[in-house]
Design brief:
By secondary structure, this protein is α+β, with helices and mostly antiparallel strands. It has two domains: 99 residues, D-Maltodextrin-Binding Protein, domain 2; 55 residues, no CATH class. The chain contains nine helices and six strands; from the N terminus they run ααβαβααααββααββ. Keywords: Signal, Transport.
Length: 219
């Protein structure tokens, strides 16, 4: 890799081809990092890309959680990847450090993703990646204790208080961690930082505990 700034493309981008084709043509090869034991899932995409653009794709497995840290070391040395996988919550730091370059993606391709997933890779109105996978949380309940899931957090809180009186627990959730608590905050209109006019975030406007009634995040 000859550039210090890298495009944070997801691996399925190889199937579409256009996003990485210019850099691949210039270098004659494309260096791709995929998660451990995940490379088999993109072999067809790699083969199609090589045939369409006549470039060699060097596929290397790299632990998902370590890719960005290794990029910080390998990128400046010119031996980093052209395509890698990172979680979207690490995007901001990577952009500020100059590790990623913005992408030019056809609007039709962007529209193939849900707004929440594609916008997770935007910063200051620039797109730096394409979503590979979207995760969500599920509620598991014991039918021996309740007939059906309760329909509000207040109901769960009341139920939990009753259970605690019996030295039991009603709802176990890691709500002290934003990854887990966002499922309760976001649907109610909460947000971490409001958006500014340039598409970035306004750290002066926090929406985790906005005054009632709850309102959607400004955008």
């Amino acid at each position: 890799m000859k550039k210090n700034t890298l495009a944070a493309l997801i691996l399925t981008t190889l199937a579409a081809g256009q996003l990485a084709s210019l850099q691949a043509h210039a270098a004659g090869q494309l260096n791709v990092w995929e998660d451990i034991k995940k490379s088999a899932g993109i072999k067809t995409a790699v083969s199609d890309f090589e045939k369409q653009y006549n470039v060699k794709v060097n596929l290397q497995e790299m632990p998902y959680a370590q890719q960005l840290e290794k990029l910080r070391l390998d990128g400046p040395a010119g031996i980093g990847p052209d395509v890698l996988v990172i979680p979207n919550d690490q995007l901001g730091g990577a952009v500020v450090q100059g590790l990623l370059s913005p992408l030019s993606v056809d609007q039709a391709k962007q529209d193939a993703f849900t707004p929440a997933s594609i916008n997770a890779f935007r910063m200051d109105n620039a797109l730096y990646g394409i979503p590979k996978a979207v995760e969500t949380l599920v509620l598991i309940y014991n039918k021996d204790l309740i007939d059906k899931p309760l329909d509000s957090l207040q109901a769960w809180l009341d139920y939990s208080k009753t259970q605690r009186e019996q030295n039991k627990y009603g709802l176990l959730a890691k709500f002290d961690q934003i990854y887990y608590s966002w499922g309760a905050i976001g649907p109610m209109g909460g947000y971490i930082f409001a958006k500014n006019d340039s598409g970035g975030f306004n750290p002066q406007q926090v929406g985790l505990i906005p005054p009632a009634p709850w309102k959607p995040s400004p955008s």
